[in-house]
Design a protein that fits this description.
Strand content: 15-25%
Distance between the termini: 33 Å
Oligomer: single chain
Radius of gyration: 23 Å
Number of strands: 13
Strand order of the largest sheet: 1-11-10-9-12-13
Number of helices: 15
Structural class: alpha/beta
Length: about 500
Amino acid sequence: MVDFPPRRKPSRKGSMADVPKDLLDQIKELERLFSVDQAKLKEVTEHFVKELEKGLSVEGGSIPMNPTWVMGYPDGYETGTFLALDMGGTNLRVCEIILPEEKGEFEIIQSKYRMPDELKSGDSEELWEYIADCLQQFIEYHHEVEDLEQMDSKLPLGFTFSFPATQDFIDHGVLQRWTKGFDISGVEGKDVAPLFEAALEKRKLPVRLSALINDTTGTLIASHYTDDTMQIGCIFGTGCNAAYMENCGSVPKIAHYNLPPDMPIAINCEYGAFDNELVMLPRTPFDVIIDNDSPRPGQQAFEKMIAGLYLGELFRLVLVDLHDNKCGLFEGQDISKLRKAYSLDASFLSLIEEDPFENLSETGELFAQELSLKASKPELELCRRLAELIGTRAARLSACGVAAICKKKNIESCHVGADGSVFNKYPHFKVRGAQALREILDWPKGKRDPVDIRAAEDGSGVGAALIAALTIKRVKAGNLAGIRNTEGII
């Protein structure tokens, strides 16, 4: 998760009147590099549709299109008490969700625990031990029991594991690759469910794993629970992804299960990997540097152009290049702080875009405080324009994934539930993304947008609990498709 500052009033427009020609020329070049026009958006989207189809095929493609074994939406009448565990990029969150008898309602209590950086590249066992420890603390505090083994029954848990994983069953998941800055050896290619369950058993915790889910699938289910026009769930945060409901008959790679062709199944796209072949995305030399210097070069090509983890780094790389090679930006000053990789995050760009003053005084203070740099007014104007270009490109490209799912499923009108720090907090992201959707899908002007991207419900908490409830419900109904431990789930 990228931490953003509180939102402020919409920002002012900058003036380029006092920007010297050499800086203006650089701004024009940056505009050429980072702008994505309507024709390119449509071209990217058409290729995206083909890649979604390829991912569902037996052969597969760069977009994994993982079947999740979530077989349909909630009806709003699910009931019970459930735990949810949310393992994301920055925090570990433990929730207890109560689904009452009232349709579409829920109650939630939750605690957050910082995910220590050393765990992200440490030992696998240490990771699961830490997660089990946080879970134990939560249960002991909220259930006020001294001996956990004395609890009457085990609490069903939905585990939101927000990393690409293939699932032959809803209660297991094989990690395909680490993302979001994680790089723990010995886990990729393994089923994470037994690793997690072993840590639970070691502490004798009164918990049973009912479902392993991705945050994006949870976003889809939680959003549909409160708004049944939601047909796509998206995440635009540290990473990017989408999930939607497909028909089993349209997923050739699960044909051997002989499921009814009209049975629904949620697909976790993992489309941050779109165009890993690099045949379509309009990459700049700075995108190439980010990819080459990342822990996984050649992977997550789309994500590296639009996700919050990379926006600040793109901005930093451009400024360093302008200082070293182009127009002598911050000439004569020590830019050692600016040279530190990933020293700027997306919130830095957010603050620049939200500076309401004509003289960009808040941006100047930001550079002085964070980077010990004194920027002239023309230099601030360039930085402001660069932040706008990077933020706008991210929003416009993000719309291509949503548009591609709509085209693939022939969705003409729906709500899209979106979550993540970039969507919720980055200035103008929603408006820029909506404008790109209009351009891609050729909607008439002056009418309400038929596909409306809205703030999602809590996918990784409430969504995980709902999926645990749905799984238990269908085991009781005898629908055991994609469930491994049928006795342990109830």
